[in-house]
Specification:
Chain lengths: 392, 141
């Protein structure tokens, strides 16, 4: 991405020049790490401080308290906060999407063997007296919704037919090894850890559930955008440049050791690199994985309204909200399409003419952002009554 | 009196509150130190109050239940009283996150917060390294 004289150094008196960025240890923190290592903020007269967080809850709290300026978040979470699901409501902003693809569902070996031998997962679950336990990372986040979608597409109700729990990704492979879990959906290297230690088998990648799905987003409080629009726009440009750099497969081996350090992920470099390159080893995947991607000419990064509406549709589908899923005002308020277009324009990155894109998910259902309410109620496997909302 | 669950997965000395809280007449549920145990205890024993290190990775497990079950404990708000809000802020400043169910009224929570603030301020500060933040040993076969 060309760095031009028009990059425009920020006037320290008029804006923030030091940004504290939150993240949780997983491979998709790569754009933040690359931006810092390559000192991409310097051209804007800015500095970045990366702050690893022990949980998505802590990351959210610090963002809302102003201890973090911006953060990498599970896509979907920002809308959950905007709607006040399960906790405090706050007005949020999605500045851009940071990555697509790259997540996976891993099963215990016993369950994976049964599925590979031809018995359906649904039949296998019916045969078992105890309720199987599946883990994900946060209820309004991506892993929960990929797991729920995948189970439901096989006729398994993720809230009734199995137990769904949130387990910190760092503990998932160990929990699977101890038999506390039967499967989990997570990012990397937390999926590869189970197959590497032979305690589990990755059976499906998230790109098979939704090819080129939104995964992590760059988020902040809406009032940060209003108070510091220059800093927010510069941050988008900085991370666009980092994302473009990361999309060159030849450069990913340079990023892997940065991610492997104890301060960032603290796991072996070769495990991180393999999955960054889309190498799933001998995993019995039905379809080749579409590797994690960070840029794709800016297609990854645009904050598509149709992506945001998909998350609302799934919140509705699983009874997490009684808000109409067709509430496009929520997504328009959160997704900073105009700010992104300005930043991308300055950086010479193409912006799509339409804020809606069309995707085909694993069950053949097309999703184009039109009629989310009808989409949410079109699924035969869904929650019929709200699980949350005002207490009795 | 409240049914209280202490999450003890980090080195924060929350387990040390057990005795003091018991003496005040609260019912202390078994401690939870792993995500599956925490989920089982919250779902099976319906605690009124859950105390957890603000830096514990297990907080996401609690948040999952708050989103998916209207009766599950969630981050408490302390109403209008300045004194009550200061107590909650003091507990947060000591790194304790407080989740309460609808049974946990402000009047019931406030004395628990006061106890946390008194006990944890006098306890020698522990090194705050959540267990899961330590490098995980993996076999490299």
């Amino acid at each position: 991405m060309p760095t031009t004289a028009s990059a425009g150094r920020l006037t320290p008196s008029s804006s923030k020049t030091h940004l504290r960025l939150g993240y949780v240890a997983q491979a998709e923190c790569a754009p933040l790490v690359v931006a810092q290592r390559l000192r991409l903020a310097e051209q804007y007269g800015m500095t970045l401080e990366l702050c690893r967080q022990p949980s998505w809850s802590a990351l959210r709290d610090k963002l809302l308290r102003g201890e973090l300026d911006a953060a990498q978040m599970l896509h979907g979470m920002a809308y959950g906060i905007q709607l006040g699901l399960g906790g405090q409501q706050a007005d949020m902003a999605v500045l851009m999407t940071l990555s697509q693809n790259g997540q996976a569902i891993t099963l215990s070996n016993a369950l994976a063997d049964a599925v590979m031998a031809g018995s359906s997962l649904r039949m296998k679950l019916v045969d078992t007296p105890r309720r199987r336990v599946f883990a994900h990372t946060f209820p309004t986040g991506t892993h929960a919704l990929w797991l729920f979608y995948w189970l439901a597409a096989q006729g398994i109700h993720p809230l009734n037919d199995v137990r769904s729990v949130t387990v910190p990704p760092t503990q998932m492979a160990e929990s699977l090894a101890r038999g506390e879990l039967d499967g989990y959906c997570a990012g990397e290297p937390w999926s590869t850890l189970a197959s590497n230690s032979h305690h589990g088998t990755t059976v499906v990648t998230s790109s098979e559930i939704w090819p080129d799905h939104p995964e992590k987003a760059l988020t902040c409080r809406l009032d940060f955008v209003k108070q510091h629009p220059d800093a927010a726009r510069a941050l988008i440009r900085i991370l666009l440049e980092a994302c473009q750099w990361l999309d060159d497969p030849a450069l990913r081996p340079l990023a892997a050791p940065w991610l492997a350090t104890p301060e960032v992920i603290g796991q072996p470099e070769h495990l991180i690199l393999a999955r960054l390159l889309g190498d799933y080893g001998k995993a019995p995947l039905r379809q080749p994985a579409r590797p994690i991607r960070f840029f794709a000419g800016g297609e990854v990064n645009y904050p598509w309204l149709s992506d945001g509406l998909w998350f609302l549709s799934q919140f509705k589908r699983w009874g997490m909200t009684q808000e109409p899923a067709s509430n496009v005002t929520v997504v328009k308020a959160v997704n900073q399409t105009a700010l992104f277009a300005e930043a991308a324009g300055e950086a010479g990155v193409a912006v799509p003419p339409d804020a809606y894109r069309t995707s085909i998910l694993m069950d053949g259902q097309p999703w184009n952002g039109i009629n989310p309410e009808g989409y949410a109620s079109s699924f035969s496997v869904r929650e019929r009554s709200p699980v949350t909302g005002p207490r009795p | 009196m409240l049914r209280i669950l202490l999450v003890t997965d980090t080195e924060k000395a929350l387990g040390e509150l057990r005795q003091s809280l018991g003496k005040r007449g609260h019912t202390l549920l078994p401690d939870a130190a792993t995500a599956p145990a925490l989920a089982r205890l919250v779902e099976g024993q319906s605690p009124d109050l859950v105390l957890v290190d603000a830096e514990s990775p297990l907080r996401d497990t609690l948040e999952q239940m708050a989103v998916m079950n209207r009766n599950a404990p969630r981050t408490v708000q302390m109403g209008e009283s300045d004194a009550d809000q200061r107590l909650l802020a003091a507990a947060l400043a000591l790194g304790v996150s407080v989740y309460g169910s609808h049974n946990a009224t402000t009047a019931a929570i406030a004395p628990v917060l006061a106890l946390i603030v008194a006990r944890l301020t006098t306890t020698r500060p522990a090194v705050r390294v959540p267990v899961s933040e330590r490098p995980v040993q993996v076999s490299l076969r």
